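Input:
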Amino acid sequence: MAQHCTLKLYGHVVDIDTKENLLSANISLKEINKQITTDEKGDFVFDGLCSGEYTLLITHVNCDNVEKKITLTNNIHLDILMPHSRKLMNEVTVDAKRGIQNTGFKKELSGKALEETKGQSLAEALSRINGVTMLQTGSTIAKPVIHGLHSNRILTINNGVRQEGQQWGNEHAPEIDPFIASKLVVIKGVDELRYGSDAIGGVILVEPRALRDKPGYAAELNTAYFTNNRQYVVSGVFEQQLKKQPAFRYRLQGTYKKGANATTPNYRLNNTGSEEKNFSITAGWKKERFNTELFYSQFATQVGIFNGSHIGNLTDLQQAIAAPKPAEVFLGQTTYKIQRPYQDVIHHLLKSKTIFYKGENKFSVLLAGQFNHRREFDVVRSSSNTKPQLDLSIYTLSQDITWEHPRKNNFSGMVGLALVQQDNSYSGRYFIPNYFSYSVGSYAIEKWSKQKWELQAGLRYDNKTINTTRLKFNGDTLNYDFNFSTFASSFNVLYKAGNNWKLNTNISLASRAPHVNELLSDGIHHGTATYEKGDITLQREQAVNINAGINFQNTHQTFTLDINVYSNNIRNFIYQQPQPDRPVLTIAGAFPLIEYKQTDAVLSGVDVAASYKITPRFEWNPKLSVLYAWNKSTKDWLIWMPANRVSNELVFNFQDKKAFANSYLSVEVANVMQQKRIPGETNGKQDYKLPPAGYTLVSLNASSTITLFKTPVTFSVGVRNALNTVYRDYLNSMRYFTDEMGRNVHVRLKVPLENLHHH
Amino acid sequence: MKKQITKIVLAVFIAGAIFTSCKKDKVEENEEEVITTMIVKLTPAGGGAVLEYKFDDPDGPGANAPTIQEIVLAPSKTYSAEIILLDKSKMPVDTISNEVADEKEAHRFYYEVQAGANVTVSNLDADANGVPVGLTSTWTTGAVSTGKMQITLRHYPAIPPNKAVADLVNSTKSGTDISTVDIGGFTVKIQ
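Output:
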């Protein structure tokens, strides 16, 4: 009997997390061994099928596999939602047709892995990437550290604009709301040159999703609650593309975060609350050959500083350090109220980006303005005093023009011009001077790819002038003017050996001009009871960074291995050298002197990460990160560098059942070792206290997406430091006084809403 | 196309130029509530010249080191002592001891007599809770001698300060605002 074999199976494949239509998704019908791939719209069609039962297997390079069983009796249309892959490996290169893509050293946090960090700060989220750690001041202030380098040596690019605030300060966290990002990326190599010649430590890209591409609107609400400091977070986003005017789209986004005092396993720390209010607006007009976007964001935060750490002179500091725990008077309050000492920071960003085409040439003009106002309110004698003790305002204007030439003979490339003007002023305590700086930079990047090979090269030159003024109260004027020229270049080779292996080698030269704090600091840094002194004769740092990476994935896609080895040789490395034999005497007693010095340093290490699907539902993800930071001049280790760390994660993915999808349970055991590589005491005491003991933290996470009233609501619950371990971390300046946070249970909810206009 | 690029570049430079002209210079205000000078004012009981001895750092932390004077007292005499704190970096000079007097619950002076100085310090003034403050005190001298005295001002930053009678000079509840220890203390000569 002839079967009814003229049936059609249509489908549309979408990435559930990035909302992108998936090109080149592979759909196979097991029973008849037929395969097809999706087009740019994510659509596919199977023709001439017989009625019957079929098992579809849908795979895509960026997503976890999806399997579906269907019974075909009539023509069917299927909408397939693919979950973005949870793995944190080097992302696969997207096809070269789309122009210049990021390749070389690139580590990305997106999809499920990024979801798991919602509600945390930017630095906490980034520390999920292997090789990235944190520099902390208590539990509320954190900055990212990439392979041991941070602050002025890392560029943070916020939605395409180089973030400019007072990032030189160890206690100055980046003023960026991680909720605006759909991707957090760490890059090194040729693409760094688009942003500066001074990215000795690397570049962090905070990238939002592109504006909505289909008519209708969508909204998402994210909310979370953390038990340790009773912190609640609410973030919402709304975006729309008008049906009548599809060229116009916009997005509104806002976040509110408030936390009370945090607790260690044994005591609660007073004045460790925080509050954050952020919002952003994006509006865009997109035509085929012209695309312009306007973006405004505001980030405002108030952060309490544990008041048991605000002591007087060196003797007081040594006293506090010797105490096993802080004095009772600084412990035990559960309030949300923030008192002195606290930080109050607001950051405004206004950006306009226009992309237009002339023939096959792509031009982009980016204009941005930033205003960062940072105030520190210290403990003062008179309770009627409402003024800040440190008040820094910095305005930055930047203009970036780029030209991407048409792809020809497998070459693609771009040339760019970057201009920056900055005005910094202070009132109250002197720490860095008033200054005006302007810089001009230009760069060129070329990429060549053919079959298994991809070569990239880039050059950049910047010239920066800084005019500083310090008008003292007694009439003295101290003016210092500086001019720095910095060169950078990078060369990258990527080789794809077969389907399973990718090898990447990169050599980059970067150069960083000293910043005003390194040149002109002159005063007591109260938080550390030290007198910091800059040096106007400092020269620019010059770094040669060699990076080699291997990525292996087996054919069945059950095993992935990623190894990255690096060696960063930095000449004229600027660091702070204690001078224990020359304390600064003041009316409050002696403060140790710490001077900015230069040395030759080399930072080498290795990051290893693997992912093994022991069974299709059970995954093991081990990670390892090791850094050796050596001061070549003193022939000793460098101070304050992250210790070795190892972590093991086990994930169990449950089968989708009725309304429950993408359910998983994971446990992570992370071990940070004691830092044994610290400078000795031949040049005098280098630190107040030895690095703390190593520690192990256990974290659990469980998540499920439940379809309620046709809406896929994602609910997750988890614990950080599940065993309530008492520990201190070497890179947290509060380690002199207190333990780290104890157990922290969190609950998260994500509710997406969409009004799709089906085509 | 050339015209468009020229226009863009011009606009960019104009923006930069406008920005440059908006620059303003601010005069540094010296750090608030800096104490530059501690004056120990001693009035002899029953009349006589008022004595003043200074621990002074007029340019604040850094630059020139502080200087400390010798305290010279007559033997077997009683003096009323008062501490005056000044911030000489402000115009007019700010009297910080007035602020300490307003916040007695959060401050305490400690007087430590050392190395053979024949003087006793007593009768310290107290805050509303009866805990000593020490802005004023009574100094009683004995026989001719030479010795040392350390004067320390401690500040309690917690809210509430929780200052207690039993608190020692190095209590972890407080931090140092003034200390003569590192400079060697006041030399006290009774002659």
